[in-house]
Amino acid sequence: MFILSNFLSAIAEILGMIFWALQLAIILRVILSWANADPYNGLVRAIGSITEPMLAPFRRLLPSWKMHGWDLSPFLALLTIIFLRQFLVTTLLGIAARL
User: Fold this and answer.
1) Whole-structure pTM over 0.85, yes or no?
2) What number of other Cβ atoms are within 10 A of residue 95's Cβ?
3) What's the half-sphere exposure (Cβ side, CA atoms, 13 Å) at 57?
4) Are 11 and 94 in contact (CB under 8 A)?
5) Is residue 92 within 8 Å of 8, Cβ to Cβ?
6) Full domain range(s) for residue 87
7) What is the distance between the alpha carbons of residues 53 and 46, in angstroms, rounded to a whole number?
8) How many domains does the chain have?
9) What average pLDDT does range 29-54 have in this prediction?
10) Residue by residue, what is the 3-state secondary structure of the chain?
11) What is the predicted pLDDT for the residue at 64?
12) For residues 90 and 54, what is the distance between their CA atoms, to the nearest angstrom?
């Protein structure tokens, strides 16, 4: 059973890194939007293409506050990612510890 335990621990670690990278990408996108970065820059486009699939569902759910300059979708996406990271990674590590 130790092989399954190690496998679940490795999956938990990888998921934790993926969630961390997604959080970082969303934070970078917010900072780049504040700095009015060049939309044709390769890095800006890459961050946009990574984060847009995560932000789009929240934009559909939220009322349109764009006219006031507020976009709460990154905040809600970060909260969701933090919740998923805490829940999934902790659960997988707990299961691995019990095996």
Assistant:
1) yes
2) 14
3) 6
4) no
5) yes
6) 2-98
7) 12
8) 1
9) 93
10) CHHHHHHHHHHHHHHHHHHHHHHHHHHHHHHHHHCCCCCCCHHHHHHHHHHHHHHHHHHHHCCCCHHHCCCCHHHHHHHHHHHHHHHHHHHHHHHHHHC
11) 65
12) 22
Band the pLDDT of 2: cuts 50, 70, 90. Answer: confident
pLDDT of residue 81: 97
Tokens of 70: 């507020």
Measured torsion, CA atoms of residues 88, 27, 75, 91, in degrees rounded to the nearest 10 = 10
pLDDT of 87 reads: 97
Kindly list the distances between the CA atom of residue 85 and the CA atoms of 15, 16, 69, in Å, as whole numbers in the listed order: 7, 6, 29
| pLDDT tens column, 50-94 | 999 999 999 888 776 665 667 889 999 999 999 999 999 999 999
Confirm if 74 and 56 have CB atoms less than 8 A apart. Answer: no
Structure tokens at 35: 């700095």
Are 44 and 32 a contacting pair, CB within 8 Å?
A: yes
Q: Determine the residue type at 55.
A: L
